[in-house]
Write a structure and sequence with these properties.
By secondary structure, the chain is an alpha/beta fold. It is built from 15 helices and 24 strands. The protein folds into 3 domains: about 90 residues, MurE/MurF, N-terminal domain (Udp-n-acetylmuramoylalanyl-d-glutamate--2,6- Diaminopimelate Ligase, Chain: A, domain 1, 3-Layer(aba) Sandwich); about 220 residues, UDP-N-acetylmuramoyl-L-alanine:D-glutamate ligase; about 160 residues, Alpha-Beta Complex (Protein-Tyrosine Phosphatase, Chain A). A hairpin with a 2-residue loop joins strand 15 and strand 16. The longest helix is centred in the middle third of the chain and has 16 residues. It starts with a helix and ends with a helix. Keywords: ATP-binding, Cell cycle, Cell division, Cell shape, Cell wall biogenesis/degradation, Cytoplasm, Ligase, Magnesium, Nucleotide-binding, Peptidoglycan synthesis. It catalyses: UDP-N-acetyl-alpha-D-muramoyl-L-alanyl-D-glutamate + meso-2,6-diaminopimelate + ATP = UDP-N-acetyl-alpha-D-muramoyl-L-alanyl-gamma-D-glutamyl-meso-2,6-diaminopimelate + ADP + phosphate + H(+).
Length: about 475
């Protein structure tokens, strides 16, 4: 692509060199440079891309986009000066791939919990209705039936545009995308045109990165602030921060709720571990999904699909045949009558939601045994909170290791234990080895008891000191149950 076309509608402060140069690729990692590459120098938290301009030129970069010109220019190289390289990258990527987000209906879902579930459920609902779509989520990236492995919650903006361009090429009309706070803060959605933005909820998470809850809230809000007037913003107004998201948006405002009047209102009529009978906007339907948090997820799916012009009966029919999202309140019953639930809940709010959903359904004659931990190198402040919630709302809480990463698992467990209140001391124990913790839960459980294994959900690894070891909660439960029931 010609550089002059690539810079279309991008505010440029100054250009040194030819602007009709051919660009074969966009790169912001100097190690990945090839011939005729455009290198974008970005100031990161660890390194400043401006330090690698000379190395990028030596490797074949012929165009440099930067915020500061180097002290001396290299002959036959074009330098483009911009105010913010990180934001410019998004617009360059959109232009390079033919602005694909404008050629399909891009739906972004943000919030602390439910992003993956809602994005995946939307993808599945639209498949059930008869549309091939694209999905960009933590668990996987899909274009129709084709699966691309996911590496980040929100991929880099070049990758996003590449995937969306493929989706357009393959005839997709819709794309559903999980929008994380990291992705917003790091400008990974810059230059994308969203048709609908959905908000799930906002609770305690990622404070290791954002430092304060207010900073976290402002980052999420930025997604809605930057929507254009042709977009639709749909928010959960049962969440105290739901209306905050809409305060400065130019988009059309819509709401959904269970507790208050809203454009999309839902109610639970019946619920058990096999599913729920729900009532959305005056219509009854059955779903195999369960838990109040899933009612909110489905209500957002219902609202988004309605705003995209689909008939409500058609949407509810497609929702009623949905299967559960992998690792999200996944249930299975052992032949010994013990009920197992595997869930990704790794924040205080998510854990509380899952435990409340189980406690709402169970008759209290069954015991609830919860196995959980907290990830290492992440927000420390949520650990005692999760210890308090699990010990208070379970018959027995077994505190164990999650993904300790570079931290000592025993230290993480101590921080979780600090939140257990004295009256619940007899209701918890600690076993650092996750496999042994699950084994104890199975040993302790009797027929009809419920065992919740929380925190990892769909993940099939455990990260210890930088090494990922294979570990799948569902596999471990099945393996131990077979071994122990012989």
């Amino acid at each position: 692509m010609q550089l002059i076309d690539l810079l279309n509608r991008i505010p440029v402060l100054e250009i040194y060199g030819e602007n009709n140069r051919e660009v074969s690729e966009l790169v912001f990692d100097s190690r990945k440079i090839s011939e005729n590459t455009l290198y974008i120098a970005i100031r990161g938290t660890v390194a400043d891309g401006h330090s690698f301009i000379t190395a990028a030129i030596e490797k074949g970069a012929t165009t440099i986009v930067c915020e500061e010109f180097p002290e001396s220019f290299t002959e036959n190289i074009t330098y483009v000066k911009v105010k913010d390289s990180s934001k410019t990258l998004g617009h360059l990527a959109s232009n390079y791939y033919g602005n694909p987000s404008q050629k399909l209906k891009l739906i972004g879902v943000t919030g602390t919990n439910g992003k993956t579930s809602v994005s995946t459920l939307l993808f599945d609902v639209f498949k059930n209705i008869g549309y091939d779509s694209a999905l960009l989520s933590t668990v996987e990236i899909r274009i129709g039936d084709k699966i691309i492995p996911a590496t980040h919650t929100t991929p880099d903006v070049i990758t996003i545009n590449k995937i969306l361009a493929q989706a357009v090429e393959e005839g997709c009309e819709f794309a559903f995308m999980e929008v994380s706070s990291h992705g917003i803060a790091q400008n990974r959605i810059e230059g994308l045109t969203f048709k609908i933005a959905g908000f799930t909820n906002l609770t305690h998470d990622h404070l290791d990165y954002h430092k304060t809850f207010n900073e976290y809230l402002k980052t999420k809000k930025r997604f809605f602030d930057e929507l254009n007037e042709n977009a639709i913003a749909i928010t959960n107004i049962d969440d105290k921060n739901g209306n905050v998201m809409l305060q400065n948006t130019k988009a059309q405002k819509k709401s959904y709720a269970l507790k208050t009047m809203a454009d999309y209102h839902g109610r639970i009529l019946e619920a058990d571990f096999n599913g729920m009978l729900l009532y959305f906007n005056g219509k009854e339907f059955w779903t195999t999904l369960t838990g109040k948090f899933n009612v909110y997820n489905l209500l957002l799916v219902f609202g988004i699909a309605s705003e995209l012009g689909f008939q409500q009966d058609e949407i509810l029919q497609a929702i009623s045949i949905l299967k559960r999202v992998s690792g999200r309140f996944e249930t299975f019953k052992s032949d010994g009558g013990i009920f197992f639930i595997v869930d990704y809940a790794h924040t205080p709010d998510a854990l509380e939601n899952v435990l409340d959903s189980i406690n709402d359904i169970r008759t209290k004659n069954e015991r609830l045994i919860t196995v959980f931990g907290c990830g290492g190198d992440r927000d420390h402040s949520k650990r005692p909170e999760m210890g308090n919630i699990a010990s208070k709302k379970s018959t027995l809480a077994i505190i164990t290791s999650d993904n300790p990463r570079s931290e000592d698992p025993n230290q993480i467990i101590k921080e979780i234990e600090a939140g257990v209140e004295p009256q619940n001391f007899s209701k918890y124990t600690s076993i650092p080895d996750r496999r042994e913790a699950i084994k104890m839960a199975i040993k302790f459980a009797e027929p009809k008891d419920i065992v919740l294994v929380a925190g990892k959900g769909h993940e099939n690894y455990q990260e210890i000191n930088g090494v990922k070891h294979h570990f799948d909660d569902k596999e471990v439960i099945n393996e131990l149950w077979k071994m122990m029931s012989k």
